[in-house]
Amino acid sequence: MSHIPARSFLRAGAASIALAIALAAGAAPASAKVLAKVNGVEITDEDLAIARDDLSARLPRQLAGPARDKALLDNLIVAKVVAQKAEAEKLAASPEFARKLAYLRDKLLTETYLGKIAETANTDANIQKTYDEVAKSQKPEPEIHARHILVPTEDEAKKALARVKGGEDFAKVATEISKDPGSKGGDLGWFTKDRMVPEFAAAAFKLDKPGDISEPVKSQFGWHVIKLEEKRTKEFPKLDQVRDQVVRYIMQKAEGEEVVKLREAAKIERFDAPQKGMKPEDAEAANQKK
What gap in Å lies between CA 56 and CA 126, rounded to an integer? Predict the structure, then answer.
């Protein structure tokens, strides 16, 4: 039978506690589809959805679609069988279990509440406003597309320069003699000045028009001969290209601000030991800020 190891499943995290609570609750909601019963206790498609969200990262990549859901249901059944045995042995009555359950309940409540805050912030208006603010702060930046030939010595660089100035194809010479394995035919693609070492960047951005070739330039990597292919002004990406990043930023920002607000409003007393070397009064002040 295809399944995730039971121990791994049972320790999957806070969402699994939600699932356990749901399974223990008894009869399924009228809208739920019953997928299995374990000693009369129902496991539904809603339970499967929770498990799918919780365990998706743990599933083997080759498991997809119906095979994935079958593996998840197998493990829900295993979890229910084991949980029923644990209940029969009164393990849920132990103080240790109560502490762990309280911890995981707090964790799940935290994730659920902050998830609600994040979703509330995730609106088209917020996305557009955030994007516009970032886009306005970005100054136009020159960007070039260039090739280079990298060799160990100045003499070799001069010989390479003589070959390309004599009419040989730059990419062909680069393929033959360049020591940069990461650039096919010496092609570096598009880049801004800050992405290259200073000596290389200064020489590359001095080139005026496509086809211009630099004199040999020394950097920490060796000697370069650079050819300018194209120039342009780097454009800030359109919203549809960065929408996912903007959404993540908005949601994380909303969660972070809510945590700060709640923490500032709460009365927090800490009794942990101060850091080594910290004066008692400094420790007290630091704890007040935590």
Answer: 29
Give the alpha-carbon dihedral of 245, 246, 250, 252, to 10 degrees. 10
Secondary structure of 65-111 in the HEC alphabet? HHHHHHHHHHHHHHHHHHHHHHHHCCHHHCHHHHHHHHHHHHHHHHH
Is-contact 72 51, C-beta < 8 A?
Answer: yes
**pTM for this model (two decimals):** 0.61
CA atoms of 171 and 146, how far apart (whole Å): 11
**Closest to 261 (Cα-Cα) out of 143, 161, 117:** 117
Q: Which domains does the chain have, with CATH numbers?
A: 6-93 (no CATH), 94-138+239-290 (no CATH), 141-234 (3.10.50.40)
Q: pLDDT tens across 54-91, in order?
A: 887 787 877 788 888 898 999 899 999 999 999 999 99
**Cβ(246)–Cβ(239) below 8 Å:** yes
